[in-house]
Amino acid sequence: MYIPTNSVNLKDTPQLPIRLALQGASGTGKTYSALTFPNPVVLDFDGNLNAHRGKNIIQVPFTSDEFVDSLAKRTTTTGPKSRPNRRDALKNWLATEALQLTAEQTLIIDSWTTLQDAFDMQQDLEPAYTKTGGIDEFAFWADKQDFSKLILNGLKRLKCHSVITFHEMYITDDSGKIIAGKIAPLMQGKFVNKLGLYFTDWFRCVVPSVGVYKWQTSSDAITNCKTRMANAPQFIEPHFKSFNY
After folding, report:
1. Euclidean distance between the first and final Cα of the chain, in Å?
2. Confidence band (pLDDT; 50, 70, 90) for 126?
3. Cα–Cα 20 to 30 A to 111, which of 19, 132, 151, 237?
């Protein structure tokens, strides 16, 4: 049997890192279940880790203005529009520190929602203009898509597992009317429909009854999910140990 030059046999390759999206409403255990992954390093944009003090969790404090200022310069240093540049701070951190994480670790971004808010605020300080002097809204959405792609493609370069938490919203049509029953990750713009391409697994965090938390692994009439696991049940325990490739 001929084996092409420079090819590899998947039988002999190690398990690839998991890139997991955890979508859910507040209180469904997104952060708690993400922290079950090995040796978590949390890029904390939400500032909701107080309940985990005393645990062996590394926090990268993107909620801290001083920390963010150490990574990226502010566009405006004085006045009411002076604010930390979290957009570029994250890009700089992923291009340096993140590349040193090992296969035994997990990078968690908590959450995509507040990360996108940080992008929006920074872009507000650096608007693009049309030839007539108006704000170029098309440039804003193009830049937002490019930023999202940069972050998500950056995760593919890492040796470690990665998890991003997403808040969710009802899907609406062009008129703003809610499409019955449909729920999607909270993000403005058409790029939200391509998010799933960047993850090996996409689960929805659900609470089917009081005090019971689950990961939904497959799609239904309400939302889209996916997994690399073969023959996975629709609902599994929300823990890293539930993965079985």
Report:
1. 28
2. confident
3. 237
Average pLDDT for residues 153-180, to the nearest whole number?
81
Could you give the CA distance from residue 217 to residue 61 in angstroms, rounded to a whole number?
30
- pLDDT tens, residue by residue, 179-223: 655 787 877 777 888 898 999 999 999 999 999 999 999 999 888
The Cα 130–Cα 135 span in angstroms is: 6
The pTM for the full model equals 0.87
**Three-state secondary structure along the chain?**
CCCCCCCCCHHHCCCCCCEEEEECCCCCCHHHHHCCCCCEEEEECCCCCHHHCCCCCEEECCCCHHHHHHHCCCCCCCCCCCCCCHHHHHHHHHHHCHHHCCCCCEEEEECHHHHHHHHHHHHHHCCCECCCCCECHHHHHHHHHHHHHHHHHHHHCCCCEEEEEECEEEEECCCCCEEEEEEEECCCCHHHHHHHHHCCEEEEEEEEECCEEEEECCCCCCCCCECCCCCCCCEECCCHHHCCC
B/e letters for 164-195, b = 16+ CB within 10 Å, e = fewer, are bbbbbbebeeeeeeeeeeebbbbbeeebbeeb
- How many other CB atoms are there within 10 angstroms of residue 119's CB atom? 20
Of 57, 31, 43, the C-alpha closest to 213 is: 31
pLDDT in the model for residue 146: 94
Residue 33 has which token pair? Answer: 């279940």
Q: 124 phi and psi, to 5 degrees?
A: -65, -30
Cβ partners under 8 Å of residue 169, min gap 6: 183, 184, 185, 186
